[in-house]
Amino acid sequence: METPIKDLNGGQILANALVRQGVNIAFGVPGESFLPLLNGLVDHPDFQFITCRQEGGAAYMAEAYAKLTGQPGVVMVTRGPGASNAMIGMHTAYQDSTPMVLLVGQVGTDMVEREAFQEIDYRRMYSECAKWVGSIDRVDRIDEFVSHAFHVAQAGRKGPVVLALPEDVLYMFGQENPVKPAHIVQPGLDLKNFDQAMRAFVSAKKPLIIAGGGNWNRVACEDLRQWANAQGVPIATSFRSQDIVDNLDPAFAGDLGIGANPALVKRIEEADVLLVIGERLGEMTTAGYRILTVPQAKTTLIHVLSGPEELGRVYRPDFALNCSPENFCAALKTVEMDSQYELTNLKAAHDAYLTFSSPVAVSGTLQLAEIMHSLPNVIPRDAIMTNGAGNFAAWVHRFYPYGAYKTQLAPANGSMGYGLPAAIAAKIVSPEKVVIAVCGDGDFMMNCQELATAARYDAFPIVLVVNNSMLGTIRMHQEREFKTRVIATGLTNPDFIKFADSFGMPGFRVTKTEEFAPAFAKALASKKGALIELVLDQEVISPSKRLSELGS
């Protein structure tokens, strides 16, 4: 006699479907709109729901988790206001090509299009920052929709997807239609196109590689590093992709983005063949699309991307290869540069990076460049460095040499408030690693409430708060464009030391360079992380300019 199949409610079916996709952790803020899903997760005692204090912080944590693990980050939020708060993390994931699945509560199917309580049309809301938005309107299609979501998030150019969960469907009873985990579908290599492109590359006199974007893994990074060293070809990285290659590796030529090394920019402009792997060549990497001319670059351009829709979108490459970095770099191992190629290019490019990343002095008693440059002497090469957005980040990216793959977590969309949630997620993923969040005071205060999440899950990073009591980036632009006509950029801050103490974290205030080392040593020894406030003179607006020198 057959055992009758037990009916489950939609929340239980959805919870089971997520677990079958390999999901064992989610970040979010609980809401009444998806209570049956939370109830279903109770049946999976190994599933960890990280309760965050705001949906923006939760979405950032899920995005950082996905970057570190290669698995889609899952975030669960309630309808309306919760979904709105989560938008910032979705936009970050979209521009960073990070796989994410956002599960968001929705009004019942019997109330749609009435502007019911907290109702939003998520297809319209997320249309510009999600690869796909679906709504599970039938209980018997839950498994199908979950499978679709995890396939889309991980296929081609990876990115975020959204599943709306009508409340009544989560309460409905039905039977499961179990589906195995999603395939990770990445494009292979057109060997004929590859051979033609490589013939152009190996005969170049001044070739250069730009690597970046979000579709990399450790194997691809190592294949590229080994090949570049063996063949003597320098590797530059795109904006906030510095950890694709260890910055102390002889092949590393520096990174592009805000305040890029002029010597590196010149090297790119003078390259006769440019091989771009994984990077879209967006505004920040190309300095406002000026380093390379639009739509046809003056140099021979070989463009390798997982997403075919991005090939030719801005730049018309000479060779367009729709291929994942992993598959391309595996094939690259068979290629040898022409015997006439000048191997000294590698050393010259790396030496230029080392010169540019050497500390420069600014006015005042606190030398941020010296502090950032000194960190590798006291932390492991696999330490994870996170940051959000602001002028303070210029010191991190220029003077701190990142280690190998996934030692950098920073938003390519320039989003403030990212550093602290990302660091907490990193401590949850790798509690044994040193994790440092570098934040500006304005940046830190956008998600400072997530220290409560760090305390709850014993996931304390070391937090460096660069405090100049203003929104430095905006103030810099004001001074440059409208000299002395300053408005809205001053900040009133709490006592950061007391704030950290309220969450059980030790806090230290540093006003002089020599005070940093002993404070940081105590932070490393602490089991509760630490917050170190770095008090910076407002005149120190960048590594190379004083505030009063702008706009004159």
What is the topological layout?
Blueprint: E1 8-9, H1 10-20, E2 25-28, H2 35-41, E3 48-51, H3 55-69, E4 73-77, H4 81-96, E5 100-106, H5 122-125, E6 132-135, H6 142-154, E7 160-166, H7 167-171, E8 173-174, H8 191-202, E9 207-211, H9 218-231, E10 235-237, E11 252-255, H10 262-270, E12 273-277, E13 300-305, E14 319-322, H11 325-332, H12 344-356, H13 368-374, E15 384-387, H14 393-399, E16 408-409, H15 419-429, E17 435-440, H16 441-445, H17 451-456, E18 462-467, H18 472-481, H19 496-501, E19 507-510, H20 513-525, E20 530-535
Parallel strand pairs: 2-3, 2-4, 4-5, 5-7, 6-7, 9-10, 9-12, 10-11, 12-13, 13-14, 15-16, 15-17, 17-18, 18-20, 19-20
Antiparallel strand pairs: 1-8
Helix pairs in contact: 1-2, 1-6, 3-4, 3-15, 9-11, 13-14
Describe what this molecule looks like in 3D.
The chain has helices at about 10-20, 35-40, 55-70, 80-95, 120-125, 140-155, 165-170, 190-200, 220-230, 260-270, 325-330, 345-355, 370-375, 395-400, 420-430, 440-445, 450-455, 470-480, 495-500, 515-525, and strands spanning about 10, 25-30, 50, 75, 100-105, 130-135, 160-165, 175, 205-210, 235, 250-255, 275, 300-305, 320, 385, 410, 435-440, 460-465, 505-510, 530-535. It is about 35% helix and about 15% strand. It is globular. Helix 1 (about 10-20) packs across helix 2 (about 35-40), helix 1 (about 10-20) runs parallel beside helix 6 (about 140-155) and helix 9 (about 220-230) packs parallel to helix 11. The strands form four sheets. The protein has a six-stranded parallel beta sheet with strand order 3-2-4-5-7-6, with helices on both faces. A six-stranded parallel beta sheet has the order 11-10-9-12-13-14, with helices on both faces. Strands 16-15-17-18-20-19 form a six-stranded parallel beta sheet, with helices on both faces. The protein folds into three domains: about 10-175, Rossmann fold; about 190-355, Rossmann fold; about 360-550, Rossmann fold. It starts with 7 loop residues before the first strand and ends in a 17-residue tail after the last strand. The protein is α/β, with parallel strands linked by helices and about 550 residues long.
